[in-house]
Amino acid sequence: MPRQAYVNGRYRPHGDAAVHIEDRGYQFADGVYEVVPVYNGILVDEDLHLDRLDRSLRELRIEAPMSRASMKLVARELMRRNRLSNGFLYMQVTRGVAPRDHKFPKNATPSLVMTTRQMKPHSAAMLNNGLKVITVPDERWARCDIKSVSLLPNILGKQAAVDAGADDAWQVDREGQVTEGTSNNAWIVTEGNQVVTRNANNAILNGITRITLLELIKAEGYELVERSFSVEEAKAAREAFLTSSTSFVLPITQIDDQPVGNGHPGILTGKLRQHYLDYMQSLGKTA
Ligand code: PMP
Question: Can 158 be counted among the known catalytic residues?
């Protein structure tokens, strides 16, 4: 069976799955999304992702397309049809289809789309060499805490990185402080072995991987502080890494033209990646 997608109540072949041309997601980026990692057949931190989806919808005053229980059923049915065991589930909710007009439509039904994608394990090269990031001005709006499908600055940042032969771009606010990557949260480890990541407010998306890793770091007793850090501090840091639902924890070994630490993936970064993998592995196993 070819890969399927869920679109507004129907399971369709992925290649033919479509929404209407006047869907407000298409015309206005008037919608939100989630990417949930699937590890050994399990939706990792599913409820945290659905909580964040609810919050994004509430902030934009878009109705939930269905109950949480129904969302979970659709997700599982799609994973079953697509035999997904490792990869991710993508969910997108928009304000629905209506004649183009900026104000909220009166009677639109929210559109819900779900897709899945398989993912290969991260390559040894990526893990052994680490990633390169460049820094770019953060040109986004003031509500980066909402997981909106409006991602133009993120796309431009990522493409600037690719054009520069790098893997991603860290976005930098007007004060010279790093906000986050184009699709991940930014972290450093200081000379004193303190793990630092920006505090979650409207300037960043509060990553679910970030939230879970914070808990693991606390549980393991590592020193941790949630605060912003400058590009200079990052370049002088002992280690740097990023987190996201598709990257988990990945080392960063170069920022702009400067190697981070000794230029090799950090030791603590490696440990944190392992803690996160162990955490995912432990899900679904009964205690
Ligand atoms: N920041 C941004 C801008 C993102 O797009 C993402 C990935 N969706 C993240 C952070 C990481 O979030 P998560 O850990 O929930 O994937």
Answer: no
Domain check: are 144 and 266 in the same one? Answer: yes
Q: Which of 106, 132, 147, 218 is catalytic?
A: 147
Structure-token match 């890793």, residue found = 213
Q: Which residues of the chain have pLDDT under 50?
A: none
Secondary element (H or E) of residue 37: strand 31-39
200-230, pLDDT tens digit by residue?
Answer: 999 999 999 999 999 999 999 999 999 999 9
| pLDDT tens sequence across 110-143 | 999 999 999 999 999 999 999 999 999 999 999 9
Distance from C-alpha of 283 to C-alpha of 44, rounded to nearest angstrom: 8
User: From atom 7 of ligand 1, which residue's Cα is the shortest distance away?
Assistant: 183
The candidate with the shortest Cα–Cα distance to 34, out of 12, 13, 51, 19, is 51
Cα–Cα distance, 272 to 250 (Å, whole number):
9
CATH number, position 178: 3.20.10.10
Whether 25 and 151 have beta carbons less than 8 Å apart is answered as no
Shared domain check, 109 and 205: no
Nearest CA to ligand 1 atom 13: 207
pTM: 0.97
184 alpha carbon – ligand 1 mean position (Å)? 4
